[in-house]
Amino acid sequence: MFPTAPKYSATAYWTVGPRQGELRRETLAAPREGEALVRTLYSGLSRGTERLVHANRVPERVAGLMVAPHQEGTFPCPVKYGYLSVGVVEEGPAELVGRTVFCLYPHQDRYVVPAAELAVVPDGVPAHRAVLAGAVETAVNALWDASPRIGDRVAVVGCGLVGGAVLTLLRRFPLSRLEAVDADPTKARFAEGLGVAFAAPDEAHDDCDVVVHCSASASGLARCLELVGDDGEIIELSWYGEQPVSIPLGADFHARRLSLRASQVGQVALPRRHRRTTAQRLALALELLKDPVFDTFLGGPTDFEDLPEAMDGLASEGPGGPDAHTGLCHVIRYPGAKGDHVFADRP
Fold this sequence. Notes:
The chain is of the alpha/beta class. It has helices at about 45-55, 135-145, 160-170, 185-195, 220-225, 250-255, 280-290, 305-315, 320-325; strands at about 10-15, 20-25, 35-45, 70-75, 80, 85-90, 100-105, 110-115, 120, 155, 175-180, 195-200, 210-215, 230-235, 260, 300-305, 330-335. It contains nine helices and 17 strands.
């Protein structure tokens, strides 16, 4: 769409109206000491939040909570949004130049950031897969909160991007039972690819030691109260925005002394907060992405120059919507990454 850009200019995707986006050119300042210039290879479309941004439906009362690092503009629009970016350092500290890095940055082909905000992608993790670092970091934090023990019976209710990341990590644990639970029967194939048993909500096993909830629905949370065993714990990873949630606390919750605890990635989980930094947590997430099974999460790619036309379809909902044809995390591909073998046979 644009001619070849000078080194210190960039093109970024902006949401400019309800279900409307465009690419905008901007000028970058040359990196100063302690900063780095990154050329983007891939970014990931985080559908849960970006669907709301694309539709101009970010609830006003939580708009502050949804502000992403390096976001420009304000909700509803115009706004430059996104936070799963992987690129290569072109200028900056000598130890970073030429390295592939992950950064919490919007959809943009070049950017300058403090070098301290970059996480080096380890050898063995392809650049396209590293866009999942944010989801895996959230899953790591949830498991630090949940603290599953040997021989536990665990269910994960809701098999989207974050729920899938939790399942993928849990399959390494010496559990006596791990079950993926989702109302969408098409998720059975995803669970099968992970080697994890799948069940519809009304067929799931009960008497669980821990249940992790990721469906962002009141019905899903209510089912968690039935699946967890006496004195068991539900770890709530869903984000509801302004959506009211009504659940039957008068039955299982009090009678069986259940616990419901929030987990979110904004802070390191309390059991590790005094011994791990957020940078160490992200580095761990990137190491865990050496597992090639994470490629099954990815859909696409869509070339960056086509994003304004493609975004409406990528952010769609309902049958045949995003998870059916674009993966749990859709990959945006930038110039310079077109030779990636993983996407060689895709449009």
